[in-house]
Amino acid sequence: MLKTIERTILCFDVEWVPDPKAAEILHYVDLSEPGSEREAFETLWKEEGKADESNPQPYLKTILCRIVSIAGIVREDNGGSVSLRLFSMPTDPDDPEKSAETRILSGFLKAVGDKRPQIVGYNSAGADLPIITQRAIIHGLRAPGFGERPNKPWEGVDYFDSRNSDFNVDLCPMLGRFSQTPSLHQAASLSGIPGKMGVSGASVAELWLEGKLREIVDYNEYDAFTTFLLWARVAHFANLLTDAQYEEEQVRVRELLEQEIAGGKQHLVPYLEEWDRLRELTGQA
After folding, report:
1. Whole-number Å distance between alpha carbons of 192 and 277
2. pLDDT tens-digit readout, 42-58
């Protein structure tokens, strides 16, 4: 269970799709042909994921995929004054340079390496952190701060030890084990927090193929808010937040949502509406 709340926290989520380059290198798919990207996806699903009629898009090993978006909520506690902010990459989904996987990875690794936050995710130890590490290594990136490890867990920040380090928090195993592990959608929705909002991880690949990166980033931001709200609920359960402090966290999230909506992020309106609906449905309104 959650043991500490550090001064800087990053609740994050990562979205990825099959990597066409992996299909080219491992299965000789010709990426110069029209429609080759879809062919590459289908080749990886078939050859690496053993796709069949019942499961046409099986889960692929993360090393065979490319990261297309990372989003998160940053919580900073400056001596009792707590602030939240939303970040997402690419910052401009319409800009191919900013949407490059190396640009996304470099930005994330630098920010985490510089700030050394307590990172929080859902199945992050099993999926999000491995794909970040694997893809960074494939691209030959350095990760000062992020990639370094202390000799012992209590001697510093360690992002590679989710069992012993307070800086690598995966909410998924905290809530269940094996057959009893809920999905993020289940855990959040039953807690009065929006889960999946019309898009699921399974539809991200199709959105990518249709050129809808902005929609993927929007969906990624939903999951970032959901992960943060679930983190606050777990922290409250673990007695790290009092009843009043837990309510304050929810107020801060609502204020952040309203601020982002006022700034033009209209896709967050349905998220706020769904939060209100679920809070009423679960008796928390």
Report:
1. 8
2. 999 999 999 999 999 99
Is the distance from CB of 94 to CB of 217 less than 8 angstroms? Answer: no
Nearest alpha carbon to residue 131 among 18, 21, 215:
18
Give the CATH number for residue 206.
3.30.420.10
Alpha-carbon distance of 258 to 269, in angstroms, equals 8
Question: What does the alpha-carbon distance between residue 236 and residue 247 come to, in Å, rounded to a whole number?
Answer: 10
How far, in Å, CA of 182 to CA of 186, rounded? 6
Please give the tally of structural domains in the chain.
1
Cβ count near 77 (within 10 Å): 13
pTM comes to 0.95
Position 1 in a domain: no
Is residue 138 assigned to a domain? yes
Q: Does residue 224 contact residue 71 with C-beta atoms inside 8 Å?
A: yes
**Residue 1's CB: how many other CB atoms inside 10 A?**
10
Host domain of residue 246: 8-281
